[in-house]
Write a structure and sequence with these properties.
Number of domains: 2
Shape: globular
Helix content: 25-40%
Radius of gyration: 23 Å
Number of strands: 21
Strand content: 15-25%
Low-confidence stretches: none
Mean pLDDT: 94
């Protein structure tokens, strides 16, 4: 099913730059106001290959400057292309929000582009036209994959670990640190393990975790470039991770009610029939993460959420999953029973900004207490099984359901579309 292959990465030349200063977050998580700081951090920062300095410049640019920058950095040997194809192992060491130390192991390869209808590469969320139009302008000009999509494969028995072991045991070819993670890059060139990895994935589909807009942009570029075979435009840069490995962290995205009043005790009870309610005191906002770990996380086998109105008590609601709908996602139930049923916010109100989607529970609790919003709804994370089950059925997840952590930095590897040329 899934076709992958090794490639010759374009990378920052060792010793020419401080890699810590030139990597950047993915383009779609950089706040507009933070762009100048990345531009100013280093004249070779990777943001210069993915975004304009100011958001307002996007409407008029054709990104020709980015291709000129890419060429100039190659002429000056700031960027160099590896002489032979390889898979690139990526080991990310980070501290999870719960304070535990984690390691995610993944690898970069080229992924053969497949239309969604073939059910080989599967999306888990919907996309917007605007971001894809912008990324298409960039791809047409740069003729390069300058940031990677993240795709997940299913390997519950962790069969690939032995084949990929050589990659992570090899001498690192690059290492970089950002605010949340240490990223170590290695090369795997041995034909036998590469063949084993390719064979394993050829029997399985993959699910896009991050990068839906980039993937669909690549499909459009392929189609307008008379692709559909094995030309450079039929492949794109991807990073592959086992969704069921210990270091693959799927975090919840919470809900902050912005445009509705705090329900009374009676309203909670009347509007949530069938739900069981408990509560615990909240000594401070800083106590929220520990309270969620203690009181909400153990309810992952049920529909459950925690409600915080900054009154000093955390309400914990749960109900069994009915046999008839045991596979229904809790996030759908919360939107139907709580956001609509308790707060009276329909889909139009949600689209118009009545609800915010914070990723960090502690920051959400602090924001709530500073006067932003009326009630925070904390959720448990979606399980990897849910992602594969929903996408296998040809469906997508509800809006803002998943937060894959940590993000892939831009700048560890690039891929030129003429990467097979001399």
């Amino acid at each position: 099913m899934t076709r992958i292959r090794p490639f010759r990465a374009l990378r920052y030349a060792p010793g020419r730059v401080d890699l810590d200063r030139v990597i950047a977050p993915p383009y779609d998580v950089i706040a507009p106001g933070d762009r100048p700081s990345y531009y100013d951090r280093d004249p070779h920062n990777a943001i210069r290959l993915t975004l304009t300095r100011e958001v307002e410049q996007e409407a008029t640019t054709d990104y020709a400057e980015i291709r000129r920058t890419l060429d100039a950095w190659q002429r000056s040997a700031v960027l160099v292309r590896d002489p032979t194809p390889a898979l690139y192992g990526l080991r990310q060491r980070f501290v999870a929000p719960d304070g535990s130390s984690r390691v995610r192991e993944a690898f970069f390869a080229l992924l053969h582009l497949e239309d969604y209808a073939r059910r080989i590469v599967r999306p888990h969320e919907l996309t917007l036209a605007g971001p894809k139009a912008d990324r298409l302008k960039l791809l047409r000009s740069a003729r390069a994959n300058l940031s990677s999509v993240l795709v997940l494969y299913e390997d519950r028995q962790r069969e690939l670990e032995s084949a990929l072991g050589r990659a992570f045991e090899a001498e690192p070819v690059a290492e970089a640190r950002d605010a949340s993670c240490t990223h170590t890059l290695t090369r795997l060139e041995d034909p036998a393990p590469i063949e084993a990895v390719c064979r394993f994935l050829s029997e399985r589909p993959v699910v896009i975790a991050d990068g839906h807009h980039r993937y669909e942009t690549a499909l459009q570029y392929r189609d307008e470039s008379t692709g559909g075979g094995d030309g450079p435009q039929d492949w794109m840069l991807a990073c592959f991770a086992n969704a069921f490995a210990p270091g693959s962290l799927l975090l919840p995205i919470h809900r902050l009610i912005l445009k509705s009043a705090v329900p009374t005790d009676a309203a909670w009870t009347e509007r949530l029939p069938g739900w069981t309610e408990g509560s615990v005191p909240i000594p401070s906002a800083e106590a929220i993460p520990a309270l969620l770990a203690e009181c909400l996380a153990p309810l992952s086998d049920r529909h459950a959420f925690a409600a915080d109105d900054a009154s000093g008590r955390l309400r914990i609601f749960s109900k069994p999953r009915p046999e008839s709908g045991k596979d229904e996602l809790t996030v759908r139930v919360v939107h139907r029973d709580v956001i609509a049923g308790v707060f009276g916010l329909d889909a139009d109100a949600v689209r118009e900004g009545a609800v915010d989607y914070p990723k960090d529970a502690l920051q959400t609790a602090r924001d709530l207490r500073s006067g932003r919003g009326s009630v925070a709804l904390y959720l448990n994370p979606v399980a990897p099984e849910d992602v594969f089950r929903v996408t296998a059925a040809g469906e997508v997840m509800p809006q803002k359901s998943t937060f894959f952590y940590p993000k892939l930095p831009t700048g560890l590897v690039f891929r030129l579309l003429d990467e097979d040329a001399g």
